[in-house]
Specification:
Pfam families: Peptidase_M76. One of its GO terms (molecular function) is metal ion binding. One of its GO terms (biological process) is mitochondrial proton-transporting ATP synthase complex assembly. This is Mitochondrial inner membrane protease ATP23. The protein is α+β, with helices and mostly antiparallel strands. It has 2 domains: 24-136, 2-Layer Sandwich (Zincin-like), CATH 3.30.2010; 138-218, no CATH class. 53% of the residues lie in helices and 8% in strands. The protein is built from 10 helices and 4 strands; from the N terminus they run βααααβββαααααα. It has helices spanning 39-44, 46-61, 63-74, 81-84, 115-134, 143-156, 162-167, 176-192, 197-212, 225-243; strands at residues 3-6, 85-88, 94-99, 104-108. The chain has a 4-stranded mixed beta sheet. Strand 3 and strand 4 (104-108) form a beta hairpin. The protein starts with a strand and ends with a helix.
């Protein structure tokens, strides 16, 4: 997997350089290697049904997701529900992931239980999809590329909003948002790459300023749904303005 949205800290990592048997995080998504169940089985599976319903609601109503879907379409990467999203069972520590090999977003149906969580996971992974669409990202060999997208996803998806941080019992004032973004980016790298913590931290620190300040396609850090709605309106108006030039 290219990257993922984490729910809890990853297990302790081995120190040292990348190991040769790196599975790129696919161990966290065991259903990736299995034959998909029949439609009847999936339709009777409560988790799968609920996941599909929450996904549809997110794509239709969430301003973060709607903006990203529009930006992807304008970049030549139209997203289709049945092609680019997959509700699957995952390891307990993850909520979702972006599979760069298939350009598919995995939603962890056994771990996403609330609509707010679905909104955040979809947004996080759509940011990875947007980066995958607009840039030549080397997800599997260049840890700095991965670090940059993880910084952007943590910064722009709502992962580090004040309410989410309070829910995690993390409090801070000046610079707390940046600290949250850095910490979550490092954790995400460690979950999907067999690198040392020092390697992950170095990669994040080396690209942090440039990637933290890359606010596309939002144009701002959306700290709330109201911010995301304003960003969506501005994005639509920006497109209309450009079309009239």
């Amino acid at each position: 997997m290219g990257q993922r949205e984490a729910d809890s800290p990853p297990a302790a990592e081995k120190k040292g350089a990348e190991e040769e048997d790196d599975d790129f995080g696919y161990r966290l998504f065991p259903d990736r290697n299995k034959k998909p169940p029949s439609f009847l089985v999936r339709s009777l599976f409560t988790f799968h049904n609920k996941c599909q319903l929450m996904l549809r609601l997110t794509l239709e109503t969430n301003p973060y997701a709607r903006l990203l879907l529009e930006a992807l379409k304008q970049s030549g990467c139209t997203v289709f529900n049945d092609r680019h999203f997959s509700c699957e069972n995952c390891d307990a520590c993850v909520g979702g992931g972006f599979d760069a090999a298939t350009s598919q977003i995995v939603l962890c149906q056994n771990n996403i239980r609330r609509q707010s969580h679905m909104n955040r996971v979809v947004t996080h992974e759509l940011i990875h999809a947007f980066d995958h669409c607009r840039a030549h990202v080397d997800w599997f060999k260049n840890v700095k590329h991965l670090a940059c997208s993880e910084i952007r996803a943590a910064n722009l998806s709502g992962d580090c909003t004040l309410m989410n941080e309070i829910a995690r019992f993390k409090f801070g004032l000046k610079g707390h948002h940046q600290t949250c973004v850095r910490d979550r980016a490092i954790r995400s790298i460690l979950a999907v790459r067999k690198v040392s913590k020092e390697t992950a931290e170095k990669a994040v620190d080396e690209v942090f300023d440039a990637c933290f300040n890359d606010l596309e396609p939002f144009g701002r850090i959306p700290h709330s749904k109201a911010d995301a709605k304003r960003a969506y309106r501005d994005f639509q108006n920006r497109d209309r303005y450009t079309a009239n030039l």
